[in-house]
Amino acid sequence: MTDPVPISDTDINDALRRLRSGGLVAFPTETVYGLGADALKPGAVNRVYELKQRPRTNPLIVHVSDAAAAADLVRGWPREAELLARAFWPGPLTIVLPRSERVPDIVTAGGPNVALRCPDHPVALALLRAYEGPLVGPSANPSGGLSPTTADHVREAFNPEDVFVLDGGPCRVGVESTVVLLDEAPRVLRPGVIGADEIARVLGVPVATGAQRKGERLHAPGQLETHYAPQSPASLYDTDQELARLLEQAPGHAVIITENPRRLPTPPDSLVQMPRDARAYASRLYAALRDADALEPSLIAIHRPAPMAGTSPEDMAIWAAVLDRLTRATS
Ligand code: AMP
Ligand code: MG
Questions:
Q1: Do 184 and 250 lie in a common domain?
Q2: What is the reported pLDDT for 210?
Q3: What is the model's pTM?
Q4: What distance in angstroms lies between residue 54's CA and the mean position of ligand 2's atoms?
Q5: Ligand 1 pocket, 61 CB below 6 A?
Q6: How many other β-carbons are positioned within 10 Å of the β-carbon of residue 164?
Q7: Which residue segment(s) compose the domain that 283 sits in?
Q8: Does 229 reside within a domain?
Q9: How far out from the chain centre does Cα 175 lie?
């Protein structure tokens, strides 16, 4: 790691003190800001559920400094996990494996598996290395709402007495990690910027995506709720006609979010212009939804990004993650 840590030793030391006494620390990652607590202290983890008002059925991702720290928390560290960690860690990939007894029930919502990730952010890594212990790190926002991609987003949601915030600037990736379950047949439980194809290439086996088939055990607790949603009503549209219909149905102040710079049929009251580049769009997504929400509009109308023919597989994976979040934001 050669990246300088854009944070002071004092801040890290304050954060460590909070964590050691069972307190909470919000920390930047490359995806979104996480609400950190000592993963091995059930009382601290309980506080995370309380503060977020997170359903107790929705397990938490455990953040670790490296693969060795992850291997300490599972029943076995299979070759597949090693391959994925070598290819993608530190990075936006969460690996789900059978947990060891070290992991408290509350972390996994009582389930047999634990979700593990090593984040690619100098501040998160500095904190994890200095703490020398795993940290739970769900997004630092009230459950169901938009994930925070800046320290200010976190400060808007929580009191400084409850949550100490490490400010590492805006998050680069902007959407939550890909979650992959390493079962007999690996499966992506939540899409992120690392696509199933990339994972399949590293593992040398097919990787399933999407919801479970009927009758299968629910592998992805917490994946079924409406999530990542703004307060205001929000809808996706494809065509100008659909947009016109939406605007008619929601008289008042509408906000339009689009990556498409074309002239719009109805002069929009407010327009949030999105980048056309996949990475830039993902990075800006939650901030754009927050900006739109802050105007308390009658409707947030979001153009469904339509990747052009010839888009690279990497960018297609990013658009798929973006579409997943947009679908949840508007359902
Ligand atoms: P977040 O709310 O962004 O922290 O995302 C956590 C998500 O990771 C959950 O909604 C689950 O889908 C997934 N996850 C966490 N722990 C587990 C686990 N033990 N088994 C399966 N999925 C998990
Ligand atoms: Mg979340």
A1: no
A2: 76
A3: 0.94
A4: 9
A5: yes
A6: 19
A7: 234-329
A8: no
A9: 5
Residue ranges in the chain modelled with pLDDT below 70: 1-5, 211-226, 263, 265-268
Q: Are residues 68 and 158 in the same domain?
A: yes
Q: Evaluate: CB of 171 within 6 angstroms of ligand 1.
A: no
Same domain for 52 and 108: yes
Is position 73 within any domain?
A: yes
Burial of 50 (0-12, 13-18, 19+ CB in 10 A): exposed
Give me ligand 2 centre to Cα 248, in Å.
33
Please check whether residues 253 and 170 belong to one and the same domain.
Answer: no
What pLDDT does 4 receive? 62
- Whether residue 220 is contained in a domain is answered as no
Structural domain total, the chain: 2
pLDDT at 260: 87
Closest residue by CA, ligand 1 atom 9? 222
CATH number at residue 173: 3.90.870.10
Q: What is the number of the ligand 1 atom nearest to the C-alpha of 138?
A: 4
Q: Which of 103, 105, 182, 189 to mutate to test the pocket of ligand 1 (most atoms within 8 A of CB)?
A: 189
Task: Give me the pLDDT at residue 296, please.
Answer: 94
Read off the pLDDT of residues 64-108 as tens digits, 9 standing for 90 and up: 999 999 999 999 999 999 999 999 999 999 999 999 999 999 999
Closest CA to 14 of 6, 2, 26, 4: 26
Closest by CA position to 207, among listed 192, 194, 188: 188
127 and 169 assigned to the same domain:
yes
User: Looking at the structure, do residues 204 and 239 belong to the same domain, yes or no?
Assistant: no
CB 250 within 8 A of CB 233: yes
- 62 near 136, Cβ under 8 Å? yes
- Tokens representing 6 are 């854009």
Ligand 1 contacts CB of residue 222 (under 6 A): yes
Is the beta carbon of 230 within 6 A of some atom in ligand 1? Answer: no
Q: How far does residue 92's CA lie from ligand 1's centre (Å)?
A: 13
Q: Are 299 and 246 in contact (CB under 8 A)?
A: yes
Same domain, 51 and 134: yes
| 108 and 254 both lie in a single domain | no
> Separation of 153 CA from ligand 2 center, angstroms?
13
Angle at 213 between CA 210 and CA 218, to 5 degrees: 80
Pairing of strands 254-258, 270-273: parallel
